[in-house]
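tool=predict chain=A
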Amino acid sequence: MSEQPIERQSMDVDVVCVGFGPATAGFLATLAPRLLNEDGTPAIESTVMPGMPLQVLCYERADDIGFGVSGIVTRGRGIRASFPKLNTAEIPMATPVAGEKVLYLLDPVGASRRSLTLRAADRMIRALGPLVRFEDHAIELPFTPEFLHKRGGLVLSMGQFMQWVGSQLMATGAVQLWPGTPVAEALVKDNRVAGVRLIDQGTDRQGNPDAGFLPGMDIHARLTVVGDGPVGAVGRQIDSQFGLPPGHHRVEWAVGAKMVVELPENSTLEPGMVLHTFGYPEPEIFGFLYVHPDRLASVGIFVPSWFDSPVRTSYRYLQHYILHPYLWKYLKGSKLRSWGAKSLLECGRVGEPYLVGDGYARIGEGSGSTNVLTGSGVDEAWSTGAQLADAVLELSRQNKPFSHENLEATYVSRRRASWVDREGRIAQHARDGFQSGLLRGLLGMALTGLTNGRLNMPGEPLRPYERIPDVYEYYDGRIPAEEIARLREDCAARGASLHDTLMERCGWPAIPYDGELLISHQDALLIGGKVQAPPGYPDHVVFLYPSLCEACGTKICVEVCSGEAITPSASGVPQFDRDKCVHCGACLWNCEMPLEENPDKTNIDFRAGAGGLHSAEN
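tool=predict ok
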């Protein structure tokens, strides 16, 4: 007996946006001021509501705009073009870049996995000492490479900046922002995107109707703007529906974890100071420290998919990072204000999907806009949104439909002629060398930067599950296999991840908790992340085939989970607690079990969901 179709309410609009990140903010900030004349009459009339201005809605998954995004340093070219009179004093935690340093961090505890070549280099640096500006187990590079420079740029809290932008948009009265409203899927008919469907409410964890069931509304739109990031449900649905252009892939990732800290009163760090680091806590992990006004700082790390550890963890490594002597001299006595994590698509332009189709356009990080040479993504994402807004205005004034052909001629042509695409082409192979090791990767970035992309260090990108060894192979020669098996059984019985136990067994010191900055992972969720999820929604992390989980011996999903929301169980199928999930999406690309019918997909499905981080300082 077939199930009865669910009756859903529907609404017609001109433009619907999925996700309120930097790209959508750039789109709306460019579009909104030009929808109304000075006398309040429509500058562009809606086709679905004649006599009214263009009807533009934006749905954001997080419970408020600005929750769950990251602190950044950016050149701010696109942002300043949208706000020529931008005054950082009006935006909390914003300040101009005042100085930059690049630091190579040596291992002060002797626990990181360093190649023989790197160990020899470390010994030479220590021996040369003051001659190479060696201090506190770190060496400062004599110059910042031109491609890394952010001179004239901005240090921002993206949460605070997005809330500021949101207030500017709402003041226009021309667009609607709906936070706390996840979009379940795009409405696709005959290869045309016709709008979106909002997520059902009042369901059990499996998505079945429960008490207070409210079917998600269908929003029919002439144009669907997809800006929900690289792990967004709608963007991945469209990738699955239409595929990727030939030669493009999405196999390189990183998880970024960051704290906002209140610096001690005697801090000597000046607002606008930017530190870029590499080499510690593991050679493959890059880090940063950005100083905001009012004794606040963002400090964090990037754990890349080519860091081949089966127990890679962002939170524990972040704690070791801030304890490095060079950083600790600034951070000792600090207090945690907020904390968060997110997945980053590290493919750059090689990860670009089809940017447009009938009824839809892709913008932002999920559209492959990130520059993987400069490590910059926010301003690029913003600029793609602004380019699409100009295209929408042009087509609307000419009463032309948002067809594939028209969007190619307006949006894609603008993007191809822009600095975003030009610099993205230069950078697209900058990180290929990291597939074969840190030193080849650094050399590849240098070659790309010095030759404007004409020379690169080659490397064949592999899916994460194709390159990571199992835990026994990874610790071979350091921990006996029988001891690993015993430790795994013990951790599984306690419902705990394995990385803390194995790291300490290999020489990583225990974290000296101080109750202020150095706190447990769970305390960080409560104090720094303020993580919570409302009831009545289905689980957004789903293990598709229990048999694959049972056969998986690695379970990186447990180790990499930024919120300890995924834990081991006696059955072999991990448990998911969405009240702890920060929606970083790391489980999606770290799963070790590919699907037989599609090796680009794994046994974890990351769907639309509610909740997550509740701090606008991130």
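The chain has 19 helices and 27 strands. The chain has four domains: 10-86+159-249+355-426, 89-155+250-348, 431-461, 466-606.
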